[in-house]
Amino acid sequence: MNASLLPLVSEFETQEQEADYLQWLVVKTRASFADTQPNLPHDAVMAQARALIQSPKSSNSPRSAG
User: Fold this and answer.
1) Which pLDDT tens digits describe the chain residue by residue (66 residues)?
2) How far apart are CA 9 and CA 58, in angstroms?
3) Which of 15, 26, 48, 66 has the most CB atoms lying inside 10 A of its own CB?
4) Other CB atoms within 10 Å distance of the CB of residue 58
5) CB of 10 within 8 A of CB of 18?
6) φ, ψ for residue 46 (rounded to 5)?
């Protein structure tokens, strides 16, 4: 069945698109729950990102070529 869905009710154009997305979401969610790597707090991730952004540019950066 290829019924169209109303945009006010669903963000998907067809029921097949919605079913495909839900299947993908279940797979990703199960993989996330099965992941045994330690979780990082948000503040730790943001600190790493800030350090990366503020670190000196690498020698092969276009700005350092000049």
Assistant:
1) 567 766 677 788 889 999 999 999 999 999 999 999 988 999 999 999 999 999 887 555 555 554
2) 49
3) 15
4) 7
5) yes
6) -65, -35
Whole-number Cα distances in Å, 66 to 33, 59, 60: 48, 11, 11
Fill in the DSSP letter of residue 41. -
pLDDT (0 to 100) of residue 5: 66
Q: How far apart are CA 14 and CA 2, in angstroms?
A: 6
In angstroms, the first-to-last Cα distance of the chain is 61
Q: Which pTM was predicted?
A: 0.51
Note the maximum CA span of the chain.
61
